[in-house]
Amino acid sequence: MEDISGPGPATPVDMTGRAALVTGASRGIGLAVAAELLRRGAAVTITARKPPELEDAVAALVAGPAAGDASRVAGIAGNAGDADARAEAVTRTVAAFGHLDVLVNNAGINPVHGPLMDADLDAVRKIFDVNVVAALGFVQLAHRAWMAGHGGAVVNIASIAGIRSTRAIAAYGASKAALIRLTSELAAELGPRIRVNAVAPAVVKTRFATALYAHDEEGVAARYPMQRLGTPADVASLVGFLASDAASWISGETVLVDGGLLATGGAG
Fold first, then answer.
1. How many Å apart are CA 156 and CA 163, to the nearest integer?
2. Which helix (H) or strand (E) holds 74?
3. DSSP 79
4. Whole-angstrom Cα distance, residue 5 to residue 36?
5. What residues pair up with 114 in beta bridges, in sequence order?
6. Which helix (H) or strand (E) covers residue 196, if one does?
7. What's the whole-model pTM score?
8. Burial 182-203 (b: 16+ CB within 10 A, else e)
9. Could you say which of 97, 138, 146, 172 is catalytic?
10. C-alpha span between 115 and 181 (Å, rounded)
11. What is the mean pLDDT of residues 46-65?
12. Rounded to 5 degrees, what are φ and ψ at 154?
């Protein structure tokens, strides 16, 4: 008879005793992910470029129902595109919590809109440096600092724009396609002790994505089978699952969280 008991814990949502680093987490999806991991019991370090916004985010997490006390939340200011800032974030997370079990690469930029033929190449290089190279840099550092010897989970925040063309944010989409490919390469290289997955949201109601929906939110939402845009919490709940032991046999996947948009053939 087959064994159907499964190796997972009795309460797979529980991540008590884990420590996570979430990049680009002063607002939007990153902040929601940090709150979700706290809700699941983890300690969390968040990073962001702007110290005032980071301080506000830390205060919001500490004051939220999930934190319990300030000892489970740390904030480290720094640009994900800066190697020294990445190293400081990883080093201080391990120093603060004693380990680093979960890395969520959420930091991303999109300074270029429109056709690639008109794109400034320096801006495109910057997009790839932050959205792809920095993500790999964080994984390398987390691997050396803790995960190589103890295991862990990495979740990369990609985009539906990395799966099909939007004709609006082409350079960003190309960088997210590279991040999706990076995810599968890392999963193959780092298993079995480290799992690496990605999530690919469609349009989520954040300040980062405002230009994609603010002109006609109702019309944009009407293209989705779910008849609404995404929320940061929609993405965060999936990230929490992929980071937890409930997803212990999932690695190398990019999971859509797109309200059914791709099923329609729509580009977003």
1. 14
2. strand 73-77
3. -
4. 27
5. 169
6. strand 194-201
7. 0.92
8. bbbebbeebeeebbbbbbbbbb
9. 172
10. 23
11. 94
12. -120, 135
Quick check: 183 and 225 in contact, CB under 8 A?
A: no
Tens digit of each residue's pLDDT (9 = 90 or more) over 210-232: 656 557 667 777 788 888 888 99
Tokens of 150: 């103890």
Is 213 assigned a catalytic role? no
Residue type, 203: V
What are the helix (H) ranges across the chain? 28-39, 51-63, 83-97, 121-128, 134-142, 148-150, 170-190, 210-213, 217-222, 232-243
The whole-angstrom separation of Cα 258 and Cα 84 is 34
N- to C-terminal Cα separation, the chain: 47
Please answer whether residues 53 and 76 qualify as being in contact, where contact means their C-beta atoms are separated by less than 8 angstroms. no
Which pair of tokens denotes residue 230?
Answer: 């995404």
Question: Which domains are delineated in the chain?
Answer: 19-257 (3.40.50.720)
Query: Of the candidates 175, 260, 172, 195, which has an alpha carbon nearest to the alpha carbon of residue 223?
Result: 260
Report the b/e string of 245-256 with b at 16+ CB within 10 A: bbbeeebbbbbb
Percentage of the chain beyond pLDDT 90 is 74
